[in-house]
Design goal:
35 strands, Parallel beta helix pectate lyase-like protein, 10% helix, 6 helices, globular, 34% strand, 442 residues, mainly beta
Length: 442
């Protein structure tokens, strides 16, 4: 009886440890990346286009799996129309015409794929590269913190020639509905427009919380993978893979909850300027925004940010590895149960943020797993982070720190066809001492 009691205790202890570790980073009883994601999209071949999408779609339209579509130029869904896309449909996007798809305010996209039959937007070039085509833009009438409404024409000069109503966003309806993106892949988007101006893989501007985003992968984007301007959004199971620029970027009063999502960076692809997994700001210029309105507020749970480096020490010395997270003034972040692995450092706060209790209570990191980072949390341009380490290293936050490589940290990091980026069970040597990761040399 005594032995049975001991065995039961050991079993429960092991199960408790498993669930305790699995709760950090992306989670799931099974690997939810299976079937619908693609980590070598440049090797995929699709049928030649049989239909062309161009101009304005001003009445309801359905794209069907049996056809392959060519997206030409700037395509707008207007006049409160709904563009419906069947599971398994492939849309080939034209390089020469900088193809893009904009869902204007009041219109919808219903791209509701299946795990075994995702919807795919990809490049028409023989050798596909980052930034081959524009991207997908959803415009809604949820609030922003700007004076008046915004226009994406100020971001994308290519769109400035079109009617303002095609490019404006923002309003007062936080529950507006721009449709569904579920089991969708967006590959090789983010084309350069001019100078430092790029399209994004997926831009959400003033999008409301009735819109569904679930299992969306943006890979090899020349611009940001996901950018959210204002609005009120719920994002689940997003994947940003090898972006040139930011993976997840929030601005202009975005109110967002993002869960169970993944960003994989490569130091050999990222822009030489600052490019992060997560960037949160409330404005670009203070004079643009109304401070009586809500600033950007992001609640992030179970995210995994990792850096795929062949030689992390060397890449850090060469300046190829930057911070994973950047937080601007007057923005709020509540980040929980997430993994940040292989960055230099993990987090940077904008230099204009005063390090005091009031501001730090708006920037929360709890139950985090910081792994293989050269330093943890710093104020921009300040190497003395003692106050920040003391704050976030407090045992009340349950943050842990470790030094292990990606193969040791994640279940199946090196599997090219079916990678698994959940934390490896019982293989992590962690410490609750915030100075551990700072004092231990990589």
């Amino acid at each position: 009886m005594k032995n049975l009691t001991q065995m039961t205790f050991i079993f429960l202890f092991i199960i408790g440890n498993i669930y305790g570790q699995q709760e950090k980073g992306i989670i799931g009883a099974n690997n939810w990346l299976y079937n619908w994601t693609e980590f070598k999209p440049n090797q995929k071949q699709y049928d030649e286009p049989t239909q062309i999408l161009a101009g304005n779609i001003d009445k309801d339209k359905k794209l069907v799996k049996r056809e392959t579509y060519m997206l030409l130029g700037n395509v707008f869904v207007t006049n409160n129309a709904t563009l419906t896309i069947e599971p398994g449909t492939v849309i080939i996007c034209d390089f020469a015409s900088k193809a893009s798809l904009t869902i204007t305010k009041g219109s919808k996209i219903v791209a509701d794929g299946l795990e075994t039959d995702p919807i795919i937007f990809t490049s028409n070039r023989g050798t596909k590269r980052s930034g081959d085509w524009g991207g997908i833009i959803l415009l809604g009438d949820a609030p922003t913190n700007k004076f008046g409404n915004g226009s994406v024409a100020s971001y994308y000069s290519d769109l400035a020639q079109f009617n303002y109503s095609y490019t404006n966003y923002g309003g007062s309806n936080a529950e507006s509905n721009s449709g569904i993106l579920r089991y969708v892949r967006i590959e090789f988007a983010g084309k350069r427009i001019k100078g430092d101006e790029y399209y994004n893989g997926l831009l959400l501007a003033g999008v409301g919380n009735k819109t569904i985003f679930d299992n969306v992968m943006v890979s090899y984007s020349g611009g940001n993978s996901f950018e959210i301007l204002g609005g009120d959004t719920c994002l689940n199971k997003l994947v940003a893979y090898r972006s040139n620029s930011d993976d997840f970027k929030f601005n202009y009063g975005a109110q967002c909850k993002i869960d169970n999502s993944l960003a994989i960076r490569s130091p050999y692809i990222s822009s030489s300027s600052a490019a992060r997994c997560l960037q949160i700001a409330s404005y670009n210029k203070m004079e643009e925004v109304d401070f009586t309105k809500k600033g950007t507020n992001v609640e992030a749970n179970n995210l995994t940010f990792l850096n795929d480096s062949e030689s992390l020490n060397s890449d850090m010395e060469k300046g190829l590895v930057k911070e994973a997270i950047f937080i601007g003034q007057n923005a709020s972040l509540n980040m929980n149960k997430s993994v940040v692995s292989g960055f230099n450092p993990a987090v940077i706060l904008e230099s204009s943020i005063n390090i005091n209790q009031q501001n730090l209570e708006k920037i929360q990191f709890a139950n985090m797993f910081f792994n293989n980072c050269k330093g943890n949390i710093f104020l921009e341009n300040d190497s003395n982070n003692e106050d920040l380490e003391n704050w976030y290293g407090n045992s009340a936050f349950f943050n842990v720190y470790s030094k292990s490589n990606n193969a040791e940290t994640f279940i199946d990091f090196s599997n090219e066809k079916r990678p698994d980026f959940r934390l490896r069970i019982n293989k992590i040597i962690a410490s609750k001492d915030a100075t551990y990761a700072q004092e231990t040399k990589l």
